[in-house]
From TrEMBL:
Record keywords, A-Z: Ligase, Membrane, Metal-binding, Transmembrane, Transmembrane helix, Ubl conjugation pathway, Zinc, Zinc-finger
Biological process annotations from GO: positive regulation of ERAD pathway
UniProt-annotated location(s): Membrane
Domain RING-type, first and last residues per copy: 206-244
Name the UniProt record assigns to this protein: Putative E3 ubiquitin ligase
One GO CC term, this protein: membrane
PANTHER family, per the entry: LP20373P, UNCHARACTERIZED RING FINGER-CONTAINING PROTEIN
SUPFAM superfamilies: RING/U-box (SSF57850)
Domain of life of the organism encoding this protein: Eukaryota
Membrane topology: Multi-pass membrane protein
Transmembrane intervals: 6-24, 36-57
């Protein structure tokens, strides 16, 4: 793939990725108002898009790096970038399909299920980030082994690349394990379920949604909110919605809003 056609494809799939991310975030925000038919429809469209891209570029050896196999021939620099960019974009869209199925599964989820949905979406994203960090490795490994610039230069660049890559992989593995640990945690890590006496004393009205509390959570600062409301709040914040006391620890970034990282993993 060379010249303007490769450039056009790169722009096109990037635009589709940004639009897909926006669609997923909107569907996640709809909560119980999501429609299974709409989620299924988007899943089919995403699948067809992935299939069409790989079918159209079936001669470009895109599948090798997906399976962590180096290309048969040393790729030119721009072709190596093209292979990595297409695969990096397509695996993110494939992960979006999985997220859409999670939204179907948790369609009517409230309270504990709503929090579990956020944890599952976050786990999918950190698994994806780890896989995406590995994706470019076989392509660049093959590229840096090019002996045209001399064996010493080739060995040095390959060694440096693999050293930096290993550091990045270790960081991604730690984040992945932390997301698995968060999923296995049964209790609410920013508070506990409130008793009926505590809810009555607080007035049984959630300050966020202004409705009767559902599955009320008592924060460490002693304020009480619906589990749905406060779980959504802590997707973005670390402090109490009322007193601004620090409640949630500075742990992993949450992707419970359905978002997907839009930064490209090219190296």
């Amino acid at each position: 793939m060379h010249g303007f056609s490769g450039f056009f494809v790169a722009i096109y799939i990037t635009a589709v990725l940004f639009k897909s991310n926006e669609i997923l975030r909107k569907q996640t925000a709809l909560k119980g108002e999501r429609k299974i038919s709409v989620l299924l429809g988007y899943s089919v469209v995403f699948m067809l898009h992935i299939f069409s891209i790989y079918w159209w570029h079936r001669k470009d050896e895109l599948f090798y790096s997906l399976l962590m196999i180096p290309p048969k021939a040393i790729p030119p620099f721009w072709h190596a970038l093209f292979i990595i960019l297409v695969n990096d974009t397509m695996v993110r869209q494939a992960a979006m399909i999985l997220k859409l199925f999670l939204l179907m599964y948790y369609k009517n989820g409230r309270g504990h299920n709503f929090r579990r949905q956020g944890q599952m979406l976050t786990l999918v994203e950190y698994t994806l980030l780890l896989y995406r960090a590995l994706l470019p490795t076989p392509v660049w490994y093959k590229f840096f082994l090019n002996k045209e610039y001399g064996s010493l230069f080739s060995s040095l660049t390959t060694g440096l690349y693999l050293t930096f890559k290993l550091t990045s992989i270790v960081e991604k593995v730690q984040s992945f394990l932390a997301s698995v640990k968060a999923l296995s945690r049964k209790e609410v890590h920013y508070g506990s379920y409130a008793t009926s006496e505590q809810v009555n004393a607080a007035g049984d009205l959630c300050a966020i949604c202004q409705e009767k509390m559902h599955a009320p959570i008592l924060l460490r600062c002693k304020h009480i909110f619906c589990e749905d409301c406060v779980s959504e709040w802590f997707e973005r914040e670390r402090t109490c919605p009322l007193c601004r006391a620090l409640v949630r620890p500075a742990d992993l970034r949450s992707y419970g809003d359905g978002s997907t990282s839009l930064l490209f993993q090219l190296f």
